[in-house]
Amino acid sequence: MELDDFNRGLVALIKKIVRKVIGEFDLVPRESLKGKTWDVEEFRKKCLGGKGRAWVKREIFDRYPEIYIENGGFVVDPFPGTGRKTIIYAYDASLWVTAHYREFNWGVK
User: Fold this and answer.
1) Which of 58, 76, 80 is nearest to 67 (CA)?
2) What are the backbone dihedrals phi and psi of residue 76, each rounded to the nearest 5 degrees, phi first?
3) Which one of 26, 36, 96, 107 has the minimum C-beta count within 10 Å?
């Protein structure tokens, strides 16, 4: 019985150490992007290196209509009118940017 108690204590200690290391080295995201939405400001800052709003609209929204929600994408209302705003599904957006960032015109202002 003493060995079982020792094993349980050892397992608990190992789990505690692993949780601490995971947190210190950011090995697991602190917050999942699933179910989160961004506006254009958050999208450009978190995925596009802080590029300007005009750049995002011209180089991303204009060039990639497949990202529009009605085309199976992740952007709702990319060109909103007065009183409306663009909604971007963060998880899908981050995956898409990771897959396409080499295609972007990063040097264009």
Assistant:
1) 76
2) -100, 125
3) 107
Q: How far is residue 72's CA from residue 65's CA, in Å, rounded to a whole number?
A: 10
Query: pTM for the whole thing?
Result: 0.71
pLDDT digits (tens, 9 = 90+) for 3-60: 687 778 888 888 888 878 777 776 656 568 888 999 999 999 999 999 999 999 999 9
Q: Backbone phi, then psi, for 87, in 5-degree steps?
A: -120, 130
Alpha-carbon gap, residue 36 to 49, rounded angstroms: 19
Backbone angles phi, psi at 66, to 5 degrees: -65, -15
- The closest of 71, 78, 18, 15 to 43, measured between CA atoms, is 78
Tokens 């957006």 correspond to 93
Give residue-wise pLDDT tens across range 47-97. Answer: 999 999 999 999 999 999 999 999 999 999 999 999 999 999 999 999 999
Query: Distance from CA of residue 67 to its chain's centroid?
Result: 15
